Amino acid sequence: MSIFGQKNPNKETERKKLSFRQWIQFLKVLNLKEKWAFFISLLVFFGSLTFLLTSAYYKNTITVPSDSGFLKSGMVGQPQFINPLYAYSSNIDRALVEMIFSSLMTYDEQGNIVPDLIEEYRITDNGKTIEFSIKENVKWNDDKPLTVDDIVFTVHLVQDSDFMSPLRANWQTIEVEKTSDYKGLIKFKQPYSGALELLTNLKIMPQHIWENANFLGMTSNSELNLISPIGSGPYKISKVEQKENKSVKSVTLVANKNYYNSPAHIQKIQIIFFDSQDEIFNALKRGAITVGEIENSEKYDLEKIKNLNHYLLSSPDYFSIFFNNNKDPFKDKNIRIALTAGINKQEVLNKVLNNRGQIINSPLLSGFYNGITESEKTIAYDSENSNQLLNKAGFILNNGLREKTIQKTSGFKFSKIMQTGSTGPEVSKLQECLAQDPEIYPSGEIIGTFGENTKKAVIAFQEKYKDEILVPNGLSAGTGKVSAATIRKLNDICFVVPAETKVLSFKIKTGDTTTLITAANNLKEQWAKLGIQVEIEILNSSEMKRVIRERDFEVLLFGEKLGMIPDLLSYWHSSQIIDPGLNLAIYQNTDLDTLLEKQRTYSDFMNEERLKTLQSIQDILISDAPAVYLYSPYTIFIANKNLKGVELTKIADSSRIFSNIGKWYINEKRVWK
What we know:
The protein is α+β, with helices and mostly antiparallel strands and 673 residues long.
């Protein structure tokens, strides 16, 4: 009680806490309808609370890749040198080097060249010098810092003929200079439009590991070339599993935690090596591997693999028919154009690649390279035009085959008037001709002097062919003098070489892959419809190398690789017609040579004048038809649908699939904004 005789108001409003048992008693006083109403209200309350909390969580968080996951990839073949100096000749080695080592520049998802180790760069000295600085937080797998010393060391290794690197040819005249630990200069003899792409192909090697190695020591070191190479890329090797026969079964890589860019999301990758594309395809179907590259062929029905994504990636690879322009009939431009116009490229693409590729009309791949458009000089498929050109070249259709009659001559023709007393080589030829008929010239003596016996023989000859020699001249008997009418008849029957009938036929030489064999057979079928006889010879890789080296072919079906910055000089300049040059068509054109040299001299590869030069190069190669440019295949990359972040559209070659692997991820997580 208060002093006023009333209850304390604080105690009046005080609420006792109800225990769970008391709550149960509360429920007992409710009827069924009230209980339902209570529980529904309670459910709505907690549902609303959950919804509000969940909404607030999703509104204030975002999904990001989780640094976790395990990826299995399949490749056909075996690794040999996970070493930037020697990886160039092997697709598997290049792919592994791509993940383990770093380069000064690299490619993004659209094939653009962007900095990798380089922090900043600028091109000076009218395009002949690249001044650059590299990132200062780069470390090798053994925690040693990567500096410009390693870059200088790598370039010198490439340039050293003792180490026999396939990269040497591109770096022979280039100088690299250190200006500080993290800055340097790259100097060219002249401006070069492909300079930045050279820097993408140069993977940097650690000087502190290899500085005392010679060629034998470097190439025989399996520990550093396979088991545990020291690199600076997004991954490093943790395990190499070998079979009983010592071949490599798999290579396991783990994410490099010290990677100078954002560390890779996928923490572990296992590369499993198979013997064939069929094994890769079957492993993908049954889920034994997560990703794999499939040969671009109609042989593989990708629609059967329902749980996988198919990535069709454009690349600067292309396949062509190369004519040997040094041999007949390919010296004739009309023949080359006729053969080009006689090919339905869409049919080839369908047969060979199941339409998984692009038809091309020049090696500059319009539609792939920025700034390069289709030429108006394109030779379209036109069988009627092809037939007309073949007829014009003298190859006429006869019983299903194209034949050409070639008149031949010994090169000797009578031209002088001869009579008794004449002497010299032409008299000897006269006696040689007359002696072919013993009835005309019984003695058959060849003495070079026109005597009485020769005169009698000439009279006999004239009277034998009197209708052509004597009658037109109003004569009834031979004169023994060789003049105009007699000369004409002598030239008709003496020293004449019979005409030769030549069939338009040739042999296609090509490699022993499924796609090349299919393409060769389809070309044979298409040209057969024009009356052209084609034989196919399939070669293994060593035989193909010899044929290319010696230019031992009439027609070659073969593929070539360009870079992301197009430069055709090595493939079409007349200086490259002899091995190791790559002018396979043995094609020479002085105007083209000038343009090929000019397009290299622009430091900015997108310079407007350079693009115009490339267009002119394209026009010449199309209109002169030294080759038939067939198709550019897509690289088919297959990945499990759980794999995300694969945003590739263009790649320089299939080994570059892993260029952006650091952005791939399998799992996700949510983080607060």
